[in-house]
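Can anyone check this?
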Amino acid sequence: MQYLRCLLAFAALIVSVPASGAGAEQGDACPTLDASDPAQRQALMEYVCFVAAPPLHPAHGAGQPSQLPADLDWQSADGHDLVFSQTESVYWVRVRVANLSDLRQQWYLRLNYPLLDQLRFWMVGDSSAQDPENQYIETGDQHPFHSRAVDYRYYLFPVTLGAGDKATLTLRIQSDGALNVPLSLSTPDDIITRSNNLTLAHGLFYGALTIFAIFNLLLYFSSGTVYYLHNAFYMASLAMFLFAMGGFANQYFWPDSTGFANTSIPLLVAICCLSITLFGRSFLDIATNTLSDRLLKAQAWTSVVMAILAFVLPYSLSIMINAAVGLLIVASLFITGWIRWYEGYSPAKWYVLAWSGMLAGTLIYALAAFGYIADFMAREIFMQVAVGTQVLLLNYAIVQRWRLLNQKLLDVEQNARTELEHKVHERTAQLRSTMRELEKANRQLATLSLNDSLTGLHNRRHMDNLLPELCAEARRTGQPLTLALLDADHFKSVNDRWGHDFGDECLKHIANVLSRHVKRPRDVAIRFGGEEFALLLPGTEASGAMGLCQRILEDMEQSSMTTPNGESTTITMSAGSATLQPGEDEKGLFRRADQALYTAKTSGRNRTVQALEAGS
């Protein structure tokens, strides 16, 4: 077990992700955060202090902040997420907040890691006379899901402050597994927006896995080929494991089963190990009674034993054993695929490619889950990308295997009986049906692309989807919405003089400049034409948009590029912006912004023009 810890720590150094957990000493004077200031909320971890209390430490047995020693040494998070590997310590986290605005406001302290056993939250006002021992939220995996303040897979703790009020937010965290404490302080609108975006991403991911699993199951029923069943089993178990790791299963499947919330994780790891072993053994066409066959059978039985032990062993021990064995099984299947490829089994090539990204994704995800690297949510997304890529490659590998089988059938077709010829045609028709379904699925996935492949910015499709929503939101909330259109000046002459390759480099340069200046979370930079770009600026008045466009134009004018013949040249841009008027729709807003851009072009270029009000 110690060897496994060293291995994970070494891998964490390789991926070079700075896990926090030790900062400069702050004493008891943690800085106070102005919750009404978005910039300070964004830098929340600069204001967070924490204490790690191992067993026998005075703070380990404390049940509320009032029981903590007065001389406790609080440490600063130094701007990093708090990440701790498996430990028996209790962790106290504190942040002081104030509302320096003139209005009573509400925020949510968000903890983006669902796998925590015991979690208590206190909010104590500096002038409050309430007893902090009776004013806390107690939740975590060891409590029913409804104990949470908000029905959400992550932890959301409400923070409400009147004008000028101050409070101290304290968390007491204890868990048998690793501890990730990625905190953020967000407004309700930010929470809803982020939740909607994640809901879409997760819906697409789990929906695609479900569709592929059902598709493979139907193929099994129609063809009787066992590796279709194993592939469906693998995708279903992997989806369920990620569903549980993401906190969804605890929210929707067993919200009142506090014991099973922990047991489910190592259990699902074992089930995933069993499914990938069965699929690998059948897909790679391993000959019976060979060394590889005996090894894979041993892995399958080991996975069954792991699943049984998940109900017997403590969670801390079970998850370490199952994770270690799981990594070894993934590596073993990767090596087995290489051997079969070397032996000339051509479908193994796609199997190896599919497992290459999966091996890296599994390792990084395990490091994040065990507390060796930070930003668990980013690793979760990375794992989903790795899984999605692997599923596509594995299903493509299945097609390649079908092609190989079909070729073998064609080779013996002339000597086969009439019944055999009928079966060959039946299998060929089935293969074509499979390929059509896969091509259809690929086309559907391609339509989901919302990014410009050259610049990396969002594309016109994304703008057409998003602009009506932003206009509706602006009309509903009364917040301003500004649309800015930008166009490169004399860009045709750039292509004519130096070629389209250099023109593409210029477009990438423009995209980089826009990305440097469009920094706010909700602002969106879009390439919607050849050299035409757009900025969607919710919450921005006309003057703010004019200033932003002017800075972009100045940056473009001051930055030069080297042409293919070694010359130095600069590219200028013209910009037109329009701010949504009462009663105006997205078409009218776009038309006024486009007219302002035309005015900027005709009046000399390299300038910014603000559109007139509608009807002027």
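Reply from J.R.: I decoded it. Confidence is low (pLDDT under 50) at residues 1-28.
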